[in-house]
Design goal:
Number of helices: 14
Radius of gyration: 22 Å
Shape: globular
Distance between the termini: 43 Å
Number of strands: 17
Structural class: alpha/beta
Helix content: 40-55%
CATH architecture of the largest domain: 3-Layer(aba) Sandwich
CATH superfamily of the largest domain: Type I PLP-dependent aspartate aminotransferase-like (Major domain)
Number of domains: 2
């Protein structure tokens, strides 16, 4: 089914404005997506009509807010096909989800000499927590190399796996390169060694169908703000039998059953990992963003974005003088590139003056840039509301940059 781009774009007020005298073209969706009116309205309705703390009050507003928040948890469970809402922990985002797992496993699982495997194309938020875990536990960090194509070296991965491997974590889709990693195979191979697996799905959930039962990873995490939802809220899925063994991450209200000075009894899942008053409106915003995606259909979104990616890639190839960083066979919604002889920051600044928003720099993936011996890239990333006409204007902008510097 073809998507109605005009009808979709009408739902995004932010897209209908001028920047520096030009119509806004927003190609920075890998950093954060724009928000449809239904998400903004859901947030406003909560604050206007239902604002109250959740889980603890018997009064009407508290019950309404609690119902909305737990409806969001069920929507998330359905969206990623998790077995139970007990396995859905609402966090401040992908970064907190990863830090939660890292911190808890450092206390419970990792021992000196254990090995943790990550990949060379991870976001900093899936590197630094594991470095910290190694410092705290004495575990050793191993890194899967990346090939020139931007694909992981799976032969090297197989060789890295050993009886010492306790944990493997990779992104589902690289934010810097757009590479779709073979996470099912990565997970299966890790499980053969008895290792646990976490998949960083921050870049995947906006662009493709995710089924955590099919993937069989032990943990899967993502953020709302990259999938048309609000900032400051995200999700950690974890298998129940593992979450039950893990110690709590934060202490405080809600994560307890009973508190005495002699000792505290922790709450059942998922509340054991949700200390304090949560981002209630963030949860409500996730539910609205999931409704938005489901109304269009994730398969339709994937098809639209694949067409945009192919079109933009070919247009850039046609103008020449472009070096692509990451040309994996399986990609989603991201083009990272360099214009010969032009610093990415300079190019991005000129495009901004033309109303074109792209990302320049290392994209919180400095090891990727080191791998390709570059300071950074220009990154254009697409969402369902983008158009080929916008890409044509973007190409004109790139040509102007080339004329100015070459």
């Amino acid at each position: 089914m073809a998507v109605d781009i005009k009808q979709i774009r009408a739902q995004f007020p932010a897209l209908h404005q001028e920047v520096h005298g030009h119509p806004l073209i927003y190609f920075d969706n890998a950093a954060t997506s724009q928000k449809p009116k239904m998400v903004v309205d859901a947030i406003a309705h909560y604050y206007n009509k239902e604002n109250s703390n959740i889980h603890r009050g018997v009064h009407y507003l508290s019950q309404k807010a609690t119902d909305k928040y737990e409806l969001a948890r069920e929507a998330i469970r359905r969206f990623i096909n998790a077995p139970s809402t007990e396995e859905i922990i609402i966090t401040r985002g992908t970064t907190e989800a990863i830090n939660l797992v890292s911190s808890c496993l450092s206390k419970w699982l990792f021992q000196p000499g254990d090995e943790i495997i990550i990949s060379a194309i991870e976001h900093h938020s899936n590197i630094v927590p594991w470095q910290m875990a190694c410092e705290q536990s004495g575990a050793i960090l191993k890194v899967i190399p990346v090939l020139d194509s931007g694909e992981l070296d799976m032969n090297a991965y197989r060789n890295l796996l050993s009886d010492k491997t306790k944990f493997v974590t990779v992104n589902h889709i690289s934010n810097a390169l757009g590479t779709i990693n073979p996470v099912e195979e990565i997970t299966s191979l890790a499980h053969e060694k008895g290792a646990l697996v976490l998949i960083d799905g921050a870049q995947a959930t906006p662009h493709m169908s995710v089924d955590v039962q099919s993937l069989n990873a032990d943990f899967y995490c993502f953020s709302a703000h990259k999938m048309y939802g609000p900032t400051g809220v995200g999700v950690l899925f974890g298998k129940k039998e593992i979450l039950e063994k893990m110690p709590p991450y934060h202490g405080g209200g809600e994560m307890i059953k009973e508190v005495k000075f002699e000792g505290t009894t922790y709450n059942d899942l998922p509340f054991k990992f949700e200390a304090g008053t949560p981002n209630i409106v963030g949860g409500i915003g996730i539910e609205a963003s999931i409704r938005f995606i489901e109304e269009i259909g994730i398969e339709n979104i994937a098809q639209q974005e694949a067409e945009l990616l192919a079109y933009a890639t070919q247009r850039l190839k046609d103008i020449g003088g472009i070096r692509f960083i990451g040309e994996a066979k399986e990609k989603a919604g991201v083009i990272s590139f360099i214009i010969d002889g032009v610093h990415p920051y300079d190019a991005g600044t000129i495009l901004d003056k033309l109303g074109i928003a792209i990302r320049t720099g290392h994209h919180c993936a400095q090891p990727v840039m080191d791998r390709y011996s570059i300071p950074g890239t220009m990154r254009a990333s697409f969402a369902v509301y983008n158009t080929k006409e916008e890409i044509d204007t973007f190409i004109e902008g790139v040509q102007k940059v080339k004329q100015l510097f070459t």
